[in-house]
Amino acid sequence: MIAFWAAIVSILFKEVLYHYTIRVGKQINSDAVIANGWHHRTDAFSSMGTALGIAGAIFLGENWRILDPIAGLIVSIFILKVAIDIILPSVKELLESSLPQDIVEEIEEILTNHTDVQVYHHLRTRKIGSVYAIDVHIKLNRNITFVRSHDISTEIEISLKNRFGKETQIIIHTEPL
Q1: Does pTM top 0.85 for this prediction?
Q2: Nearest to residue 121, comparing CAs of 173, 75, 159?
Q3: Are residues 142 and 86 in the same domain?
Q4: Domain that holds residue 76
Q5: Residues 162 and 86 in one domain
Q6: 48, 88, 138, 155 — which has fewest CB within 10 A?
Q7: 67 with 7, same domain?
Q8: Phi, psi for residue 109 in degrees, rounded to 5
Q9: What is the SS3 assignment for 11-64?
Q10: Nearest CA-CA partner of 48 in 56, 38, 60
């Protein structure tokens, strides 16, 4: 019974840690902290498998000891699924894949809504840790001054940082149309 109650306490404790860690990870936009939260969840599920196996042996008798390896197999499959869900975003980040399409569309909207941007191209995006990196070429009226060209780039940069955070890394290349 001591092992059974220890497993129940472990489930409760690890589930509380999971919710807390996930909340903090989302607040600070950290995939590593979120992954650690999922580690707590897999620990809770492992403890569930243990509790089921122990409960089967205690309450149903020796013939139900099979519940322990069955629960272990189910928990193993769950842990494998969680591992894949954690690994894929990390691999995408390491390979510096583009930001999700909805974020790219927001960037495009900011660019097209600026009255002086006539055309943009070579838009490249990626995530570096929890920071977005945006690189774009914009075409402006060829008769504007160098100073105005710089001011337009600064205005766009401010709009992007207001939307995606002050740490956002932005490179804007201006070209005459």
Answers
A1: no
A2: 173
A3: no
A4: 2-94
A5: no
A6: 88
A7: yes
A8: -65, -40
A9: HHHHHHHHHHHHHHHHHCCCHHHHHHHHHHHHHHHHHHHHHHHHHHHHHHCHHH
A10: 56
State the pLDDT at residue 96: 67
In the structure encoding, which two tokens stand for residue 15, read together? 């589930």
N- to C-terminal Cα distance for the chain?
A: 78
**How many independent structural domains does the chain possess?**
2
C-alpha distance from residue 129 to each of 65, 77, 118 (Å) = 46, 29, 32
Token pair, residue 22, equals: 């996930």
Q: Tell me the mean pLDDT in the region 165-176.
A: 94
Task: Give residue-wise pLDDT tens across range 105-148.
Answer: 999 999 999 999 999 999 999 988 778 999 999 999 999 999 99
- CA dist list (Å): 70 to 58, 75, 144: 16, 9, 72
Residue 115 sits in the same domain as residue 167:
yes
